[in-house]
Structure formats: structure tokens, C-alpha cells
Amino acid sequence: MNSRLLVLIVAVFCAPGSCAYAPTTYDVPPILANREEVAKQLQSLGATLEAQVLLQVQVDREGNPEDVRVVQGSGDRHLDALAVWAGRQMRFSPARYRGQPVEASVRVPVTFALPPQITQQPELLDTQAVSGIMQSDYAELRGSARVNVQVGTLGAVRDFKDLKAETADLREAVSLLLPQLRFTPARSNDRTVAAWVILIFEFAGAESLVRIEPPEGQA
After folding, report:
1. pTM (2 decimals)?
2. Does position 83 have pLDDT exceeding 60, yes or no?
3. Residue 17 pLDDT grade (very low, low, confident, very high; cuts 50, 70, 90)
4. 3-state secondary structure of 141
């Protein structure tokens, strides 16, 4: 199993007076705007312990973190430091009072959690139909493409990355094909889970096909 941790970041708003920094009164709380971006940056750093760090972030009128402090640590100084670093990368829609931006405090739990153990990989459904679309709608294309695809719990493509194609036309064709694909979702013991797989598209006229591979380290 890939040892890289999932990182979950959720902002929890502080009622006026409830945080160590007493926020200015507001009627619209600060809203974390780049949660997914910060989570991906943390994942790339390769932490390998499960834990949660509770941060308190003082957000200025521009939505930038003025100060970041650990309210509740994980017990691991390295993870605490990573969480504080993440807090400094966060950007918010600032709190507002009567339509005007104001400073405010927000508490942000940063959770480092191991991804689920995949016991059954996703399987691509109706590959013949997909190959038929490639053969009919893209009969003139020649070449291959490779893409990492995240299959959601309902079997649809939820996200993709690292799309590598030999030409721009192939890249566009794959981008249009991905939303049409359906899978049996991955399973972790008795429940369905999201999982990443690799898809290989071979455009070769009547011989066009698509195949699925497990990601590296999960073969």
C-alpha cells in the first residue's frame, strides 16, 4: 500500500470571543479558499504518521494568515511543523461585517490519515463500447496516451492527472472520453472507496483499445 498520507483540512469558525484571539464581530465568517491545494502540497512532502493537529489562524482583512499557532499538537514535532507550514499557505475569503472585510480567527484541524487498503481494484466496464467510440469517432487518430484516473465510489471518473499524449489531438480525445467511462469501484474489505488507476489509450483505427492498469506499487 502507498504509505503517503491523505491530508484532510477543514476550517472550523470561532464564535466571537471563543478563540484566544478575540475576532472582530462579523456576520460572514472567513472561508478557506485553497483547501485542496494546501492538502496536495502537504501530501507531496511524504509524511508517514497518522495524526491530527488543531491550528488557530488569525486571518487579516485580505484573507491572509497573520499568525498561525498550534492549539492541540499531534505529539510529533515534525507533523506539527508541517501543519503550521500549511497554515501559512492557506488563503481565505475574509470575514465580513456589514459588507466590509474584517480580521477574524479560525480554527483549522489538519488530519493526516493513511489511505484505505485496497482489496479489490476498480475494473473498467464495457471496454468494447469504449473501443468502438475510439474506432468510430477518432478513426483518423494514431498514437497512445496515458493518464492517472481517480475512480469514485459510484464508479465514475472523479479526477485525473498526469495526462501524457503524443499529440494535442490525442490529449483532447482522451479528455472527452474520460467522462464517458464507467467502472466497478474499488473496495476496501466490505466498503467501496475511491482509488487511482492508470488508463492506457491506444488509437489505431479499427484496432483502437483502452486498458486499465493498477498504479505503481499496487500491482
Report:
1. 0.56
2. yes
3. very low
4. coil
Q: How confident is the model at residue 144 (pLDDT cuts 50, 70, 90)?
A: very high
CA angle, residues 64, 65, 68, in degrees to nearest 5: 175
In this predicted structure, what is the pLDDT of residue 14? Answer: 56
Boundary (domain end) residue, out of 113, 147, 162: 113
Q: What are 94's three cell numbers?
A: 475574509
Q: Would residue 140 count as lying in a domain? A: yes
Number of domains in the chain: 2
Domain contains 88: yes
Domain boundary pick from 86, 113, 140 = 113
Alpha helices by DSSP H, listed for the chain, are 35-43, 77-89, 127-137, 168-177
Residue 1 lies in a domain: no
| Residue 197 vs residues 5, 8, 103, 204: alpha-carbon distances, Å | 17, 21, 43, 22
